[in-house]
Structure formats: C-alpha cells, structure tokens
Amino acid sequence: MKVFLDANILFSASDVDSATHSLLDRVARHGKLVTSAHAWEEARRNLERKRPHLLAGLEEMRRRLTVTHAFRLPPDVDIVDKDKPVLAGAIGSGCTHLWTSDRRHFGQLYGKTIHGVVIISSVQLAVSLDGKEA
C-alpha cells in the first residue's frame, strides 16, 4: 500500500491527538506515505494561518513521508484545476491510493480507481485497514 496524502489530511494529521493522526500511524505500518511539495506547502500555509500551534506536528510528520516531485496526469482525466496537482502526484509517484477528505472535489470519485490510484476517504481507508489487521 502506497498512500498519497492530500493537504487536508496532512493538516488534520498534524494534531497528534486526532483520529486522522491515528489512522496515519496505521497506514504507515502497512505501507508507504507519500505527498507532494505542492500538498505539503498548502498544508503548511493553512496551518500557519489557522492553527500555528500544530506546525510542529506537521514537521514531525515530515520524516515519515516521501515528498514526490513526480507528476503525471493523463489527458483523459477530468478534474477541477486546483486538484490536478494532487491526483497527478498520486499517479506520477505510483501510489495505490489517494487519501483525501475533500468531498467537494473528490467525493464523487471515492472508491473509484483512476489510472491505478483508488481515491479514498478516511472511513474507507480505516475499513480497508481493518481487513488487513484482522
């Protein structure tokens, strides 16, 4: 399992007491965590503006991630422009999953596979891991 983390997941997981952080720990035990410089910077910028006290949690998380610079978005993928770098990072880095809580832009894609990448919510990811840990 190679999971690409969207900026909103990085943001939430920066709180070490959050359910998202706990789920990230579970994912790390079963595979590899990946994000892009684009997603990392978006999460850092949003934390700085909204929850600066959690920036240390984001920085601590950095050592557990691979930050990819690989981007590949096939021409047949139709997605909102602002989310293209996220999906392109997941596809380009060979991830099996794209973990996002962005229901507005990715919600209709939850559970679907796009060029080898399953778009997945936190709940879907937790259910998937429950089967692996049983």
Question: Can you offer a commentary on this structure?
Answer:
With 134 residues, this protein is of the alpha/beta class. It has a single domain (2-133), classed as 5'-nuclease (Rossmann fold), CATH 3.40.50. The chain is 49% helix and 16% strand. The protein is built from seven helices and six strands, in the order E-H-H-E-H-H-E-H-E-H-E-E-H. The protein has helices at 7-13, 19-30, 37-50, 55-62, 84-92, 103-106, 122-133; strands at residues 2-5, 32-36, 65-68, 97-99, 113-114, 117-120. It has a six-stranded mixed β-sheet, with helices on both faces. The longest helix has 14 residues, at 37-50. The protein is globular, with a radius of gyration of 14 Å. The mean pLDDT is 92.
The helix content, as a percent range, equals 40-55%
Shape assignment: globular
CATH architecture: 3-Layer(aba) Sandwich
| Rg (CA only) | 14 Å
First CA to last CA: what distance?
16 Å
Number of helices: 7
Major sheet strand order: 3-2-1-4-6-5
Total number of strands? 6
Q: Main sheet?
A: 6 strands, mixed
Structural class by SSE content: alpha/beta
Task: List SSEs in N-to-C order.
Answer: EHHEHHEHEHEEH
Assign the CATH class: Alpha Beta
Q: Strand content of the residues, in percent? A: 15-25%
Total count of domains: 1
Uncertain stretches of 5 or more adjacent residues: none
Mean pLDDT: 92
The CATH H-level superfamily is: 5'-nuclease
CATH topology: Rossmann fold
